[in-house]
Amino acid sequence: MALFRRILRLLNVPGFGSRQPSESQLGRIRTAMLSVLQAHGGHSIQRISQRVRFATDVEALWYLRQDVMSALSAIDGESAARRQMKSINSMFNGRLPGSMGPRAHQRFTGGNNS
User: Fold this and answer.
1) Among candidate residues 12, 35, 23, the one with its CA nearest the CA of residue 85
2) CB 12 within 8 A of CB 18
3) 72-89 confidence digits (pLDDT tens)
4) Mean of the pLDDT values across residues 27-42?
5) Rounded to the nearest 5°, which phi and psi values hold at 11?
6) Are 52 and 37 in contact (CB under 8 A)?
7) Is the separation of the CB atoms in 33 and 87 below 8 Å?
8) pTM of whole model > 0.85?
């Protein structure tokens, strides 16, 4: 049975090995996202806030981070938006399936590596 659980955990089967956030953890992430948006007004901010408010799981909130970041960047600039999103991004650590976490990006140098 232990081998079966390990295989399911490696395959990221929901409910096996992935730590599902509690409602309070989900609420904390949602509240943090809404609090950075609430300092700003406008139709697009309200639309994103509504989507955050009604997101049903951590994966939906994970994908909405980009919308929040884009909205904040348009208003405050990218560096300010990144600062505001840093603590929100850290709230997702250990709460997503392995395939959904942040990825390390390789910088293209443009040189010939052969």
Assistant:
1) 35
2) yes
3) 999 889 999 999 999 998
4) 90
5) -85, 0
6) yes
7) no
8) no
